[in-house]
Every structure is written in C-alpha cells, then in structure tokens.
User: What shape does this take?
Amino acid sequence: MAQKRQKQGFPSKEQVLEFLQTSDTPVGKREIAKAFGLKGQEKIALKRLLKDMSEEGMIDGKRTAYHRMGGVPKVTVLRVVEIEDGEAVAIPDNWWPEAPGEPPRLAMREVRRRGGKQVAALKRGDRVLARTEETDRGWIAHPMKKLPARTEGLLGVVEIDGSGKAWLAPVDKRIRNSSPISDLGEAEEGQLVIAERAGRSDRAGLKVIEVVGDPLAPRSFSLIAISKHGISHIFPEQALREAEKAVELPLSVDRREDLQHLPIVAIDPADARDHDDAIWAEPDGQGGFNAIVAIADVSFYVRAGSALDREARKRGNSVYFPDRVVPMLPEVLSAGVCSLREGEDRAAIACHLRVDEHGNITNFRFTRALVRISHNIAYEAAQAAIDSGDAPEHLQNLWACWRSLERARHARDPLELELPERRVVLDEKGQIAEIAIRERLDAHRVVEDFMIAANVAAARALETKTAPVVYRLHEAPGREKLIALRDYLATFGRKLSPGQVITPSLFNHMLKDVNDEAEKVQVMEAVLRSQMQAYYGPVNVGHFGLALGSYAHFTSPIRRYADLLVHRALVDAYKLEQPKPKGNFPESTGLSDRDRASLQQVSDAISQAERRAMEAERETIDRYVAAWLSSRVGEVFDCRVTGVQRFGVFATIIGLGGDGLVPVSVLGDERFFYDEKAQALEGEQSGERYTLGMILRLRLAEANPLTGALKFEPESSVGQIEPRGRPLPLKKKGKHFAGKRGRPGNVRHQGKRR
Assistant: This one.
C-alpha cells in the first residue's frame, strides 16, 4: 500500500510519530522524507531529528523501519508465549519493557500463504516473522513465516562434536539448541566467543567475530551478561573529555550553603564503589530533630545536552556485578569528585528536614551546599559502634532520629516482605571466596529511612513548586493478579474478599496471622507474585509498596539518571543555578527544554534500562552460584520449593539462594497432575503433593556455570537425571569442574543432533 502524502514542510516530532502509527507498511527515513516532500539539507535535518527522537525514547528501530517506542514494528519477529483456546498469543521476541506492565500481547491470526499453504502449527516458544496491526481490541499479528530457534545474543562456547564439526553452545539457560559454526576463525574448543550469522540463510551457520576467552576465568561471568544484554561499558571519547574538564570546575561557598563544619557521615557497604549520600541529625530541643540528607551534586558536573549527559541518559543507571561496576558516569566523576569521600570538600544538594517526635516530616527545604564528610563508615562498623555503647554523638543522634522515623513508618505500615539478598565475595584473584545471604542490620534501616524521607521531600517540594517530577511509581496489584492470589489462598482456607480494599497493611496482617513457617513462606511468595513492577513516570499514581502518595528518587544521582533529573528540577524550582563556568560548558545545571518536553519518553527508557540491569545482575549472580556449587554436585541440601509448574518444581538451597529445577520426571514413576490455583503437583496414585514453601532434601544433580542453571533430584532418586553434554574441557586450579555441562544444544533424537 502506498504511503499517505502529508502536508509539505519539515515535520515536527509529533507529526513523525503520527505518520509512523498510521502507516500500513514499514516506515524508514526514505519514506518519511518522501511523505513530507523533503529534499537536500532537509533530509540531513531529518536524520538529526530521528536520532534525537531515538535518544529521547520516542521511537525505536533502525533507519529503514522505525516505530514508536512502546509499540511494535509493522513487520517483526514474535515469540509464542501461550496457546489460548487453540489460538497462539505472542510477544515481541526482543522486547524490553519500556512502560509499566507487561509487553504487548498479540493474537495470531491464521493466514494462508500463496498456493493455499498455511504457516506450520504453532506452539509455545516458536518464533514467527509476522505483520502486526494495532486495533481497537488490541494487537493482532498475521504470521508470515515460522523461524528456526536462535542462539540468544550469539554469545556462547565453542564445542566440537565427534565428527569434528563446530557448534556454538548458548550461555542462556532458556535456550537448549546449539547453532552450527561455519567459520571458527582463531577460536578454539571451550572458548567463550561472540558470533554473527555467516549469511542470510540459517544453513550458512555462524562466523566467530570475537574471542572473549576462558568462560570460567575471573570476570567472564559479568562479561557474558554485558555482551548478552548489550550494556554500554565503553565511554565515547567526547564524554570522557567532558568528564575530565568537569573535574576542574571550581568549588566555593559562593552561592552554596557552607556545611563543612557539620559531622555528616556516609554509611555504605564495605565494598562500596561510590558514595552518593551522607546524613546528619541533631535534637531540636522540642522532642524532634533537625536533619540533613546531603546528596552528591551531580547536576553541577553533568549538564543537560552535553555528550556526557547523552551517554548517562542512554545507560540509565549503573550496573553492579560482583567483580566490576559498569558506571553511568565515567570513573573520574562516579568514584572521584562526585563521590562523597571522607575529609574532602564536595558539592552537594542538601535536603533539610524537620522531623517531629512522631517521625513526621513537618518542613523541608533544598539548598546547594559545600560539605566535608567526617567519616565514610561501613554498615557493620556503624552497627558495632552503636551496639557497643561507645558510638560518637553524631551516630547516636542519627539512631535517635531514625527511631522517630521508624515510628512513622510503622504507622504508615508499608509492605514488609523478607527478601534475602545473595552476596558474592571474591578474593584478590577474582576467585569466589564465599557466597552468603547478606545480613540485614538496623544500620541498613537507618540509611534507608533517611533516604525515603528525602525522596518524599523531593517529590512534595517539586509538587509545591508546580515543577516537573519524575516519580518512582508502584501501582497496587491488578485485578487478574488479585484473582489468582485469592484462588491460591483459598486452597488452604484463607480468604481474600473480592471487594476488599487492597493495602500493604492488609498483606502485612495476612503474613502476621500465619504461625506455621512453611505456610508463611508460601503466603509471602504468593503476595510477592501479585505485586506490580515499579517504574518511573511523570504522572503520579503513588507508591503502593511504601504506602506513600508521592515518591521520587533523589538520593542516588551518581548511579541513576532519574535522580539526576529530579536534581535538575530542584535546581530550577529553588533557583539554585550556579554562575556559568569558564570554558565550553552548557550554561544551565537545571532541566533543559528537551528534558521538560520528553519526561514520559525518558522515564520509559530509564525504566527499560533498569529492568535490563536487574536481569543482567541476577543472571551473573546465578552463574557465580552455579560455579561455586559445581564442585559439590552429588551433595544433598535442604531446599525450599519456590515455584511449581507442570514440568516440575523450582527449589532454592536454604541459606545460599541457589535456584534450580526438579524435573517432574524424577519425582516418581506415577503421573503428576498440576493444580494451577493451588500451585501444586499431585501424584495420581500416591496423592503426594509438592507445594510452595515445602522443605525438601534434594541432591544437586547438575550445576552449569556458563548458564547459571542448576538441577536437583530427590535424595532417594540417585542418578535419575541423565548427565547432559560433556564435562567442561576448561580446567580450574588443575582440575575439571565437577559439575555436568548441562546440555546447551546436544539434544539427540533418533541418533541425530538437532
């Protein structure tokens, strides 16, 4: 179908978006230029416009086929996730959620090809090239071609089979098929490599374009995640040059509040790579406290519109791995002049709080300040000082103020879920020294409650000034999730009335009423599954989990772009602009016109970046845990069931957090039925049930460090899980890893490799 002819003249961003959404066919730069009658220099200007729209999160795609961000390309690859009433439902294959909620679900419509042939019957997991259409009833897709399974990210380990043929074994535990390699280049068996398609046809195989090295060497696990998720980890030269110049910006008390005399302390993890925040409090003589939360003044160094800002905006946040951090800002800023180091003068945005005896924030204001941190102290050290009774006065004041804030938190009754955090400790050689659950101390709660108070103050301050706000949003559970939770609770005699007002307090009371520890874990897991995912946005819907009406992220601008936007808005709202520095720096340290015009798009993009970072961090921890456990295959552990599906149960090693699958095939010789409402598997003859929260004695049968996958079998079922693949050819400390390889692609059927 021909493109619709638009009005002549250079288009606005809104006109480009409208054209993309109303077109019946894929739209690229050429089609836009033709539709608006652009020629010569206007085409060059269009290229810049499309680049800006892409960076602002307004559009996605490439120059030959753009689509609006959050939408779906006209022709794209979809992945089938469900079969509903015989109809396939799919989502975009490369979807990164850029808005609250789930990725768009597309109903597959049966389409006959030329000659009357149909696209082959679809099942869950299939990939399909399809033409998409947005209708009043939602998205639909018209299948064009069923595609072969692919290797995620084309990142994997080289395997050589018995015939000498090379294969790329994926490092993603969700993918089971290896891909043939037609051009090994200089790669050798057992090496971690990055590959690309050698030709248009899948029969052409893969070509190795980069050898990463030993997949089990220190630092490789994070490199796998960085490569797979496309995380930017090398700064452009221009951004680095701007960072070096920003370091030289002079600091003075001129137009800054001088807080250098106050004993402000930064309490952080012992291994913290940067220090965004520091806190101070003292009694006000009326039963309450005056408090200050000082946050690194990143907006002074990173100004809107600079190359440094564009890169930070693109990254969205820092990504933290056990062996490295991929920072949002270059190290000279993130670990240098922006980091609140002990005894050094630093630029800060200070949030002044007045806290009454009940912990309520009765007044707040924001200033640009000059601070000198009196101490950088680890959580454990601060807690030990308080517990010993010999803590200095400034620490005692912090704890006293926190007890008031704690009373307010208890009155608010935010959602209280005990979510253990795994901690990977490496030695100086990068080898795993320990994996443990991170201890939760009062010192953590002290800092957390001060930060929450400052975040609330930032949101309310901007609302009072009618300024733009990038909120941190968390919506109440949706109807479908509440119905699933109600059905699940009903299976063991607990009620959740359909018309009941849903609050965090309701869930907290529900958990407190459960005395049995195993049942409590089940209820907690169910409540957690019912929760929506938090996100960023300029339209306030509150924060359900924290039981707060207005909440913004203000306290971590070194590592979160959302916080930097909030800082810029505060600079404007409180008229905290600094004199223009010498040199080629943008004049304003506040919000740019571009920021103001695209807050929704930026919020969507940084929400997407956050989810990407979380998945990369989680996968890397899984790989470290699997590597740690690979020498303990065959050992029996106490495990707790954390998930139940038709194909088996998921279990976590208690006290360690290693998650793995117990396939239904090893649970017994009988047939097992899946009770979706009760989240249980039940044996047909024995009636034996496997449910959430159960404690099981399980033997570790497989541990694959490359994918992070674990497999368990019951203690009495020795050897029922067939070893898959070959032992790792790579050696560690002179010995093979004891874990099985996990069959990344060696699926054999009737004697043939598939």
Q: What stands out?
A: The chain has six domains: 13-68, 75-147, 152-228, 237-473+540-617, 479-531, 619-753. Residues 459 and 546 are 14 Å apart (CA to CA). Confidence is low (pLDDT under 50) at residues 1-6, 96-101, 112-117, 723-754.
